[in-house]
Amino acid sequence: METKIKCNNGSFVGMETDGLIIWKGIPYATQPVGKLRWQKPLPAADDDGVYEAVKPGHVPIGPANDSGGAAEFGEDCLVLNIYCNTSCNDSKKPVMVWIHGGGFCAESQAAPLYDLTNISKQYPDILFVSIDYRLGFLGFMNFERVPGGENFKDAGNLGLLDQLEALRWVQKNIAGFGGDPDNVTIFGESAGSASTTFLPLIDGSEGLFKRIIAQSANIAYTDTMEHGLHVTQNFLTATGCNTMDELMKLTTEQLVDAYMKACILDKNCLLGAANFPLLDGVTLPEDRADLYTMWGDEKRAKIGMMIGSNLDEIRYFVPTEGGEEGFLDTLRWIAKRDRAMLNDQEKEMYDKFMATLSNESEGSRLEQYCNDINFRAGNTDMAIRHSAAGGSTYMYFIKKPVTTPYLGAIHATEVPYLFDTRLEDPMGSGEIVGTDECEFRHVAKEMWTNFARTGNPSTDKYEWKKFSENDRQTMVFDDTIGMQKDLFGKREDLMMSWAKRLGNGSSKRVC
Questions:
Q1: pTM of the full predicted structure?
Q2: Considering only CA atoms, which of 82, 97, 112 is closest in space to residue 211?
Q3: Closest CA to 66 of 142, 122, 121, 135
Q4: Which of 498, 93, 34 is nearest to 292 (CA)?
Q5: SS3 string of 476-505?
Q6: d(Cα 493, Cα 8) in Å, to the nearest integer?
Q7: Which residues are catalytic?
Q8: 326-350, pLDDT tens digit by residue?
Q9: Cross-strand bridge partners of residue 184
Q10: What phi and psi values does residue 47 have, to the nearest 5 degrees?
């Protein structure tokens, strides 16, 4: 494999080190700067130039730069990295495209947590790609009531459209790197996971990928256009702008400053800083229920699905809520707020759900409610529809905890195991997932890559049975690993009606 690879938008020279060639910061689209701010991404223009691709591109603008000093903020952030193991010369390697998390308002592929170097070393027959996309105030906005906003109708889901443009670039160019454009799997965690469940529903996505791996989040991660107005007002207040002309003149520094000010304006879970993808009627349907319906149709059944969640997802937020007492207060608020938004029949189902947990503490009941409403109900609803339509559907559940006991198997706990990277305790106690060898670390990677190769994640040691509504077969990762049926006694079904209507994250619901 040569380090210089010709693509439609130039020849890019990567760096060879320790058995890998890594290309960093390759632009996959025309950069959305100047007059292209808040506009749909355009394909990267054809170019015969030769460019170094050895440094990360700019980090998408957000509330924090997670690159560890390796990169700076920039609007010209539509870039991708490619990791190729030189010990395998196959010309049609399966391709795995990683979409990072961060609540659609933060993080980047430059974060050390998302470094794909180690997994690339271990699986030489797979070509790994990671991408960046516009976040927060630049990626998911409703400008319909801002003077001049009528010219920015796609602004509600630009981050998702960026991801599709990256996948189009992959289709055009990945063969030059030894990848098979007909065998692409997109995978991600949190916002990246939700992205994998949105992309198959967007016009123009057909043929860009064959399979998805959704790690925790799902199509519930959407906000209404009305909610978008709230975020837009916070943005306008933070910037002092009133019109699109004024917004277009903001500098990078002013945009970064706006995140900080908006978080102060509305302190609730970065509410002031970003939307989830918007139900805009342009890129996504206006009705969240339509997203679920689409996952039960023939078109989506052609896409292989692996989807799952972790035992203690919601405890990821214990540190951000100031510890156990503040965390419990937040859970009480969420549950009370949710119940107040339900109709009489749904209130009965809510009470029945809580009754299934009557032998547990108040904190445990509230945690399980928030885990189910934010993660499991949507995952299960999607999986039921997809499998019923004839799709190949695989469900997992992770109980393997991090090494800090109070956190448990939190949101994102699987990421450092997959990538052999470090995860730090947000409270500052140090590393909570190291690189020590364990069965889960080995098996999870093998299953993820098997799924990308063939659509079946089973290994020689562990058979992973397909999910169906009747038995709900689930691969459980704990001290022991194996299949279990109907882990929760269908309790998540009790909340599917309002989970589908209200979506994820009561703490973001101001409308």
A1: 0.96
A2: 97
A3: 135
A4: 498
A5: EECCCEEEEECCCCCHHHHHHHHHHHHCCC
A6: 48
A7: 190
A8: 999 989 988 998 899 899 999 999 9
A9: 95
A10: -155, 135
